[in-house]
Amino acid sequence: MAFATTAIHAGQEPDSATGAVAVPIYLTSTYAPEGLGRNKGFEYARTSNPTRLALERNLAALEGAKFGYAFASGMAAIDATLRLVKSGEHVVVSDNTYGGTFRLFKRILSNYGVEFDFVDTSDVHNVEAAIKRNTRMVFVETPTNPVMIVTDLKAVSDVAHAAGARIVCDNTFMSPYLQRPLEFGVDIVVHSTTKFLNGHSDGVGGAVVLNHEEDANWIAFVQNSAGAILSPFDSWLVLRGTKTLALRMEQHDKAGRAVAAFLEDHPKVGKIYYPGSPSHPQHELARRQQKGFGSMVSFDVGSLAAARAMLEAVKLCTLAESLGGVETLICHPATMTHASVAPEVRERLGITEGLVRISVGIEDTDDIISDLDQALNAVTSGE
Ligand code: P1T
After folding, report:
1. With a 6 A CB cut-off, is 206 part of the ligand 1 pocket?
2. In the annotation, is 254 catalytic?
3. Which residue's C-alpha comes closest to atom 10 of ligand 1?
4. Is 46 a catalytic residue?
5. Cβ atoms 132, 90 nearer than 8 A
């Protein structure tokens, strides 16, 4: 079945009890068994819930995976995935990830004996060089948040597998509509469903999808044992979101390209980060690996003062963290999403004080561009 059909139907047969076409929100914490040891597949709602299960099947199908697990947030999904690694083992990570991922690895998981090395995974040789005897996982984000570095998933998967390590890809920026990492050899895909999968900025959630049965059993065990589950209502919101994922991503992609082209020509804009621009260093790789370029665009306006002037002048675009919703959101990574990354690391990655990140929504594209234009024109040349 094609993607748009899978998105609407996978995991969502009409309800067996009532025929309800939309999956009901099962607001129950527990289930009455028919007798001791005889239940209908559900015992306690931390372990499993029919609404969450429908979403988990839906997300697995969208990524072309056998197993899916929904978590309370993208960070909870990433945390659960890292439970596949034990104390004394080593993980190679893309050096530019979402700030929260960096914080979880560096500030929390490092305290439990897991070793992390952060490298620029856009060059597969850096990954090869960072592999150690005890490397058990390679974790990549592509394109990265917020400077849009693209990693060759096939090449890095081969290197990881040759070393006996799993490769995990955070596919939040692309969504499975624009990129399906498992097709390139990636073992595990993680998502913040808060973003494009939900698509309406009304719920926080995360997901892990994979094919390897033993690892899947462990993720399910962690999900049940640590309990960072997605609620039935939030599961339902994401299910509603994925029904329109194909349509939304088509428009996000179109609008992203138009906004990037507009910014590229604007005199107040310096460097622009968008894999769809022919000037992007991995433009060709992005073309091969992705079905489109998406709607995340970052650009440098030169200084904190200029960024502030612009961000305070937008009217239609909303100054806020997060991304992937129908509405255009704009933010300042250095002080918002990536504030937990050390200043020298931010500087090296290009997360300067003048960097602005935009998640282009699906409002009328001309309206978005007019708003950006008037906000950029509010930046005076001294700033
Ligand atoms: O916010 P949460 O659902 O826990 O997801 C974390 C996360 C994981 N991976 C990527 C690539 C992300 O972008 C995020 C969250 N990012 C933002 C909130 C942001 O504005 O960038």
Report:
1. yes
2. no
3. 98
4. yes
5. yes
Q: Is 170 in the pocket of ligand 1 (CB under 6 A)?
A: yes
Encode pLDDT of 186-242 as tens digits.
Answer: 999 999 999 999 999 999 999 999 999 999 999 999 999 999 999 999 999 999 999
Task: Say what the pTM is.
Answer: 0.98
Q: Report how far residue 215's alpha carbon sits from residue 204's, in angstroms, rounded to the nearest whole number.
A: 24
- The residue whose CA has the least distance to atom 20 of ligand 1 is 322
267 Cβ neighbours under 8 A, 6+ residues apart: none
Ligand 1 binding pocket includes 197 (Cβ within 6 Å)? no
β 90-94/166-170 pair status: unpaired
Task: State which ligand 1 atom lies nearest to the alpha carbon of 173.
Answer: 11
Atom of ligand 1 nearest to the CA of 206: 3
CATH number of 246-377: 3.90.1150.10
Does ligand 1 lie within 6 Å of residue 323's CB atom? yes
Short-list 68, 87, 278, 313, CA closest to 176: 68
Q: Is the CB of 141 under 6 A from ligand 1?
A: yes
Q: Among all chains, which residue has been given the structure tokens 């995340």?
A: 296
Residue range 39-62, pLDDT digits in tens: 999 999 999 999 999 999 999 999
- CA 322 to ligand 1 center in whole angstroms: 7
217 C-alpha to center of ligand 1: Å?
25
- Give the Cα separation of 303 and 352 in Å (integer): 8
Within a 10 A sphere around the Cβ of 14, how many other Cβ atoms? 11
| Residue 152 annotated as catalytic | no
Topology adopted by domain 3-243: Aspartate Aminotransferase; domain 2 (3.40.640)
138 touches ligand 1 (CB under 6 Å) = no
Sequence ranges of the domains in the chain: 3-243, 246-377
